[in-house]
Design a protein that fits this description.
The chain is of the alpha/beta class and about 425 residues long. The protein has a domain at about 125-260: 3-Layer(bba) Sandwich (FAD/NAD(P)-binding domain). It contains eleven helices and 22 strands. A five-stranded parallel β-sheet has the order 5-2-1-9-19. A four-stranded parallel β-sheet has the order 13-12-11-17. A hairpin with a 7-residue loop joins strand 21 (about 360-365) and strand 22 (about 375-380).
Length: about 425
């Protein structure tokens, strides 16, 4: 029996395993993940300010996958033997596969900046559930010992949305606790301008996000390169548009949440010929490894070059719907492979994002996510805040019920022109 192994049970991995099962009944599917639970990462900023608890956004993965006849192994992968189609797990076991789908997510590169990160450093993170809980503990200390706050993204970061979200959510939480007047806030980012988002901007994102920061009395520093972090102090070089040093800042803080740059996880990065120098998987337009034809990849671990050169390095984000479109292409291409047909499905990489701001929100639609685009749309309003809450509940429901894309979701998205796969009859080669 054909055996497909999926490494990763995150935003894309678990939904992707369900989609594989929907398309392929007579195969063995195994999901391997270092943690035994699923976590809805987009809700982590709410965890950090106490608006959610761990059990609200996480659940054990194995029993829900089992309902769809999908095996689950809660072990880290120590090594991938791509030549012999074998995974070496942390517990010493070996797992063979016919097809491998890598959906590991990233390695968080806090070590690239002295003093960064929640493990031995001085900054917080909302990248994982554990990190968000640690940030919540630090937030509670802030309420008792108020002072300056820094939120943003280090150089090389590619996922800017959660940084904006956390800055606005934190600001709202501080107002609700009636201490906002005692907490100066600064947004520090490697982006060349506010609202760049690693995407060269989306619609009117620059002016809208600048306006929101200004209205909330949040200062900002762009083209920011953090040189080091010490206890209660961040050292930042601010560059001009030519990449030359404009000024240097020593910013005090009581609480700081900074998103790191990403790298590929070690087991993936070490496979010869699989990845780029940062450890991200090199794939063709069908999400297939360029070197290993039975390996596919989706999500943050996929190599995508920056959309443009910036004075301080920024990466390209991989958003939720974009990742889901990658998975749909993978499922179609593996199914075609097994049927002896051409594997020609291509993901659209369309993006629909909802960013909460505590008491309002921002939404953008980019088709495709990476410019040039056919459609660009950016809007702000309180409706986005409620839409984000609704999406959280809906996605958790999908993951517990084993649905990758219910028919009504597909229908609604088609109404706004969003599809997961490119129409090969009209796609210009």
């Amino acid at each position: 029996m054909t055996h497909i192994v999926v490494i990763g049970a995150g935003l894309g991995g678990m939904a992707g395993a369900y989609e594989l099962r929907d398309q392929l009944n007579d195969i063995k599917i195994t999901v391997v993940n270092e943690r035994d639970y699923y976590q809805f990462v987009p809700s982590n900023p709410w965890i950090a300010v106490g608006w959610r608890k761990r059990n609200d956004i996480s659940f054990p993965a194995a029993p829900y996958l089992a309902k769809k006849n999908i095996d689950f192994i809660a072990q880290a992968v120590n090594r991938i033997d791509a030549v012999n189609n074998t995974l070496h797990l942390a517990n010493g076991e070996q797992l063979t596969y016919d097809y491998l789908v890598i959906a590991t997510g990233p390695k968080l590169a806090f070590d690239e900046i002295i003093g960064a990160g929640p493990h031995g450093g001085y900054t917080q993170s909302v990248c994982t559930l554990d990190h968000a809980e640690a940030a919540h503990e630090d937030f509670q200390k802030l309420l008792k010992n108020t002072g300056p706050v820094i939120v943003g993204a280090f150089q090389g970061a590619s996922c800017f949305g959660p940084a904006y979200e956390y800055s606005f959510i934190l600001e709202t939480a501080l107002r609700r606790h009636k201490v906002r007047d005692r907490v100066p806030m600064t947004y520090v980012t490697s982006e060349p301008y506010i609202g760049h988002l690693g995407l060269g901007g989306v619609g009117d994102s620059k002016s809208m996000l600048e306006s929101e920061l200004r209205n909330r009395h949040i200062k900002w520093i762009t083209n920011a390169r953090v040189t080091k972090v010490e206890a209660g102090k961040m050292f930042v070089d601010e560059l001009n548009d030519n990449g030359d040093l404009l000024r240097q800042h020593e910013l005090p803080f009581v609480h700081s949440m900074m998103l790191p740059a990403f790298k590929g996880v070690d087991a993936v990065a070490e496979v010869e010929g699989l990845c780029n120098p940062r450890g991200f998987v090199i794939v063709d337009k069908h999400q297939r490894s360029v070197k290993y034809k039975n390996i596919f990849s989706a999500g943050v671990c996929v190599a995508i070059p920056p959309v443009e050169k910036t004075p301080v390095p920024t990466g390209t984000p991989k958003t939720g719907y974009m990742i889901e479109s990658m998975w749909t292409a993978i499922c179609h291409n593996i199914a075609a492979d097994l049927n002896g047909e051409a594997s020609d499905a291509v993901a659209t990489w369309n993006a629909l994002c909802l960013a909460d701001m505590g008491d309002t929100g921002a939404a953008f639609l980019a088709m495709p996510q990476i410019p040039p685009r056919n459609v660009t749309w950016f809007r702000k309003g309180r409706w986005v805040h409620w839409a984000k809450i609704g999406y959280e509940k809906y996605f958790l429901y999908k993951m517990k019920n084993g649905s990758s894309e219910p028919f009504y979701e597909k229908y609604i998205l088609k109404l706004v022109g969003m599809n997961r796969l490119k129409d090969q009859t009209t796609d210009l080669k």
